[in-house]
Design brief:
homodimer, about 475 residues, Rossmann fold, 3 domains, about 25% strand
Chain lengths: ~475, ~475
């Protein structure tokens, strides 16, 4: 029964092993699929990720994005239209080249690594006038990237599940407004619903999306002090609009190239952060709104009467809109409790002979790890109350993650020490244009960390010199290790 | 403004042109994507198909199917495990063979044309004991088939959107129960929710799914007398379980191979039937439950006061859970009415100066094409009433499709005449085992029609001879033209 003993690694001490065990034991994904870098997502993660999609899509639609389903394949000729895109993505592309009994296709097709070159070709057919703008779209899709780095389930796979939004605007100002809207969406969904704290950085020149004029990305902090890049939003160079001829007629009938933005929240990667940020030594802890199931009724030494009672309770709770699982397996009481705590279900209802006779129920909350006995007739009221306060509580706990995690370094040594201590290090820096790349490379080499970028709402002013090269500082950057 | 004149072809007289116009003018899909056989699904179809997915998945989950996301690619070695599967599907496979700058992959990967050979490899790892059975799964996914027949949007594309269920059972009897459950699911969802009438046939030996022992498929009838195959469910041969080693230990600890079933409702293809079955000469007619939007407020000669009023009405209806669109475009009243009728939105609310002053609203129902004036304060009550009776009405109209469409043929001439008249022809037949294939070929050649199979609940008894070959008849078959 070793497998059912729960998680044996400690999250803070052996994060990597903890992560591996949680994914396997809570049955989130099976890595034994026989194509390297591709995994099978199992029901316990799929049910949660479907809810994550639902919340995100609702917010996007409310903000005027319309849903599309584009083909999974992109012809090579589209792919070659924009120079920096070719350079940035070609190494990662999977190519479909033949069909049937090895008959070659007329043209090689890329499995989309991202869909700029599919969308903008159609944008050129759909957008005619200034009245069509802003033209706001999105699609739910899988993308494929031939990763050369080591893959890890959810964090980095060769196929992942995401949303990509693509929008065309009349002016650069309108496009930048969209970038701000994307950042607000990230706050509304990733933080307020999924419960993930993050910081948005403008990436330095050398770390932008291929073809972007400006790139902004959300970094989530892990307990081991590394950050995970989550959604990024990009103001693209007009080279895309020009390559695909995406233009509109203004009020005077003059042809103007649009400004395009795109935004890419990768649901299956964000799920990794849900595991990591909320989980503890016992396993997963799902926020209520994205829990695969919200409640389990753990029946202690099941018999017919108890099973019947459990089904009645389930029915009652489902009528109120809650999702409920019943566990009448042969496992011992302790095993059942451990199992469902590991699976991260928010509430466990405990029902045995004693409870049945006393018309009571045990209620265990995963967020506080507290148990109480309630009168059976208080059940719905109690669950409703828990459901309303659960996520607030979990988010407050998560927000603590960033507390005391940011330190300021005054010199090179300060950077190395801060990074070694698992912090995000803030310091004065020469420049995030390509002239600053040498200093970034020093950091990479000496501290195995990366310049994540600058904060748009940075309040601190520069007043000295770059901590690395000593030249006049023009900006404040944040440095961290990353996945 | 030619494009906005609505549909010019008549559905009954020029079905093919009608279908093409509806897809283009109602903006369901754009066929100008530059890979042959791949199309872009636009918001008006995606919003509806998302609802179709939601209803189907809810029913599947209620019946104990758990959701998975499998990789899009299947390694060639899996694909080659089951002989009839290789033979049946290889001609249709797209192969991923290289990555990056033309570097060959270690192994060719198939873009899944269907996922038996992906699921069952994992089944062999997941299923251990009789207690694990039935093991019921499904996934929402795209599939890819290199079709050689002419493609048509929704009906036949090289990439389509479907659900596939895969289930393993302890006995053949349990597996057949699953097949019946799949047929019941089809009735509950395709008929009762999407409003599509169909007949389930057991396909003859020569028309089974590659690797199936028995294949059952739903045929939907089109107004031109052709049928479209919609979901099919299959009792697979044990060759799959044997090829992938999917077995379980029974109560005595003996290893037994499972019996596997699969079921494949193709949402994007079923959407074609939604267009075809419910549409009329003015365009689309969506059932309420799967309408992209349920209500449009058509503002007549919009001004600030009317726009404000429309927004208030929208808000009120949205609070009640309805989805609402506002049209304050510069189009004329007539254009607006035609446009939204073509788009198939169930209810149009008409709001102009007159209505505003009288505190009245015009209500137009797309199912009955009837208009009424109501007091503004009656709005929510009226809409609720319509929403409750709308689909019943649409389904009754659709059910008429099969009325008088089935005729019995006594001889070869009767078959040809019935088929020419756009009917489904029923007749006595020698056998649906491979010995009957010659007779089926005669029908194909002489009537350009196909033996669709036998009905499981057939009440009529055979009492004579095969209408084609004259030998003793053993079964009643149904014959139709098809897409």
């Amino acid at each position: 029964m070793a497998e059912e003993q729960g998680i044996t690694a400690k999250k803070e001490q052996n994060f990597s092993e903890w992560y591996t065990q949680v994914i396997q034991k809570a049955e989130l994904a099976d890595i034994r699929y026989n194509v390297k870098g591709f995994i099978v997502f199992q029901p316990w993660s799929v049910l949660s990720m479907e809810k994550m999609y639902k919340h995100l899509e609702k917010v996007l639609q409310k903000k005027g994005h319309n849903p599309y389903w584009f083909p999974t394949v992109i012809p090579e000729r589209n792919f070659k239209m924009e120079a920096s895109h070719i350079e940035g993505f070609t190494p990662e592309v999977f190519w479909v080249t033949s069909h049937g009994d090895n008959d070659p296709l007329e043209e090689k097709l890329a499995l989309r690594p991202t869909s700029e070159t599919a969308f903008y070709q159609m944008f050129s057919l759909w957008i005619r006038s200034h009245k069509d703008l802003p033209f706001k779209t999105y699609q739910r899709a899988q993308v494929f990237r031939y990763e050369t780095k080591a893959t890890r389930p959810f964090l980095r796979s060769r196929e992942f599940h995401w949303i990509e939004t693509h929008c065309a605007h009349a002016t650069k100002e309108d496009a930048m407004k969209q970038v701000y809207e994307d950042m607000a969406t990230t706050q509304e969904v990733l933080h307020d619903i999924y419960g993930l704290p993050f910081m948005f950085f403008e990436r330095p020149e050398w770390d932008k999306f291929p073809g972007a004029e400006r790139t902004f990305a959300a970094d989530v902090l892990n307990p081991d002090g590394r950050v995970v890049q989550q959604p990024s939003t990009h103001l693209l160079k007009q080279s895309f609009a020009k390559a695909f001829n995406v233009k509109y007629k203004d009020k005077e009938g003059k042809d103007i190239f649009t400004w395009i933005t795109c935004y890419g929240p990768a649901i299956s990667r964000i799920f990794a952060s849900v595991i990591i940020v909320h989980g503890d030594d016992k396993g997963l802890r799902f926020p209520w709104k994205i829990a695969p199931k919200e409640i389990v009724i753990a029946v202690i030494r099941p018999n017919e009467a108890l099973t019947k009672k459990a089904e009645k309770i389930k029915e009652k709770l489902e009528e109120e809109g809650f999702s409920v699982e019943i566990d009448i397996s042969e496992k011992s009481m302790g095993e059942k409790f451990y199992f469902w705590e590991m699976k991260g279900i928010p509430v466990r209802i405990e029902l045995g002979e004693k409870e049945l006779n006393e018309k009571k129920l045990g209620i265990f909350r995963r967020d506080t790890a507290k148990k109480e006995k309630i009168d059976e007739k208080e059940l719905v009221k109690t669950i409703k109350k828990i459901s309303q306060e659960y996520d607030k509580n979990l988010i407050e706990q998560a927000d603590q993650l960033f507390k005391n995690k940011i330190i300021t370094a005054k010199d090179k040594k300060g950077i190395k020490q801060g990074i070694e201590a698992g912090k995000i290090v803030k310091c004065e820096f020469c420049t995030t244009s390509n002239h600053g790349k040498n200093c970034a490379e020093w950091i990479e080499k000496e501290a195995q960390a990366f310049v994540r970028g600058t904060k748009l709402d940075e309040t601190e002013k520069t007043k000295g010199s770059c901590v690395i090269c000593g030249k006049k500082s023009t900006t404040i950057v944040y440095i961290a290790r990353s996945y």
